[in-house]
Write a structure and sequence with these properties.
It contains 11 helices and 16 strands. With 363 residues, it is an alpha/beta fold. Among the domains are: 51-180, 3-Layer(bba) Sandwich (FAD/NAD(P)-binding domain), CATH 3.50.50; 264-362, no CATH class. A 7-stranded mixed beta sheet has the order 4-10-5-6-7-8-9. Helix 5 links the parallel strand 6 (112-116) and strand 7 (141-150). The radius of gyration is 22 Å and the shape is globular.
Length: 363
């Protein structure tokens, strides 16, 4: 474990080792370096008054890792009457819908609130609309504005266009996105993006996914493409080939230029609902080539409707979108893990074919 720092002339690493009490920096030479550090967030550390104290007291929880999810699960076993979620991106919206299932009484009473300066920024418009409809139906309060501080009562926030802040009382605050990981020391990458851009804090790369010769960057840390898992997987293939080409001294025409291939976008809205936008021409790449009979029967009407769409994109909602989303992720799981997950999902889907109905809308 360690950290990477970039100086004007070189990139160096500080490797923290258990037997090294001094934690002295060590220099490593390399022919090619890949930065795949995930969400690096803001170019400057995010500072929210009261966040550190709220995290320490248990008033607030982060939500950006598996450990955070386990901590939240443990916390929900206690009495939680009201929740404020800070961050209305993918994670915040999916979390809000999931909490509505776990805390249905709190949701129906309007005691689960979602705060964000923008709702699902960078997301497909159809998914924004459908997600908003579902959250409103579940009773989730969507508050557009900026959270300015946390205290023992809850969150102080400033609605968009307002000069004064308001207090929203709650028993638990959950922070997501860049704010959730702001307490960790992270690599800072030079970025030309402005404050409102999804590329803020993400590195500018060339068509070969390089920050500089021999220095590659991909995933959420890399700018110029949507910060999604499917794009990161495509970037990984391009980067791997280009590193091979560099180390093999292959001519530049043999290198691969990265061209994102968006196969679809899905947002989970609970355990059985989702919103999605897919490209009919990409269904062959999105879904496994062979499906178990029960799942094939369940998904056939939706796949047929999407495939017949005459437009470049089609919106899918409800249970069909949830099933398509699960299949797309299942297809990309490695080895035996894919089989184990498929077995669990088969047990949930088998016998429920009649409930898998929904609308496919051309966009």
């Amino acid at each position: 474990m360690g950290k990477c720092t970039k100086t004007p002339a070189e990139v160096s690493f500080s490797l923290a080792q258990a037997q090294d009490a001094q934690d002295e920096p060590q220099s490593l030479s390399f022919d090619a370096l890949v930065i795949a550090s995930g969400q690096v967030g803001q170019p400057e550390p995010v500072s929210l008054p009261g966040l550190a104290e709220a995290l320490e007291s248990g008033k607030a929880l982060r939500f950006c890792s598996l450990a955070d999810a386990e901590a939240l699960r443990q916390r929900l076993q206690d009495s939680v009457e009201s929740v404020a979620i800070v961050g209305a991106g993918y994670v915040g919206v999916e979390l809000a819908a999931g909490l509505a299932e776990v805390l249905p009484e709190a949701a129906s009473a309007g005691h689960i609130a979602l705060f964000g300066s923008r709702f699902l920024p960078g997301c497909e418009e159809a998914n924004q609309k459908k997600s908003a409809e579902v959250l409103d139906k579940l009773g989730i309060l969507r508050k557009t504005g900026r959270v300015v501080s946390l205290d023992a009562e809850g969150v102080a926030w400033s609605p968009s266009g307002a000069e004064r802040s308001e207090l929203h009382s709650c028993s638990l605050v959950i922070v997501t996105g860049a704010l959730a990981s702001a307490a960790e020391e992270r690599l800072k990458l030079a970025s030309p993006a402005d404050e409102e851009s999804i590329d803020k804090g993400r590195a500018a790369v060339d068509s070969y996914l390089r920050i500089a010769p021999g220095l590659f960057c991909l995933g959420d840390a890399s700018g110029g493409s949507p910060p999604t898992g499917q794009i990161a997987m495509q970037q990984a293939e391009t980067t791997a080939w280009n590193i091979f080409a560099q180390l093999s001294h292959l001519p530049r025409p043999t290198w691969r230029r990265f061209k994102p291939n968006a196969m679809g976008e899905f947002i989970a809205l609970g355990s059985t609902e989702a919103a999605g936008v897919v490209q009919p021409t990409q269904l062959g790449n999105l879904l496994p080539p062979a499906l178990p009979p029960a799942i094939a029967r369940a998904v056939a009407p939706t796949v047929s409707s999407v495939g017949q769409a005459s437009t470049a994109k089609a919106a899918v909602a409800g249970r069909p979108a949830s099933l398509l989303r699960r299949l797309a992720y299942l297809y990309r799981l490695p080895g035996m893990h894919r089989l184990k997950v498929a077995q669990q999902w088969l047990e949930r889907v088998t016998g429920n074919d009649s409930t898998l109905s929904g609308n496919v809308l051309p966009l």
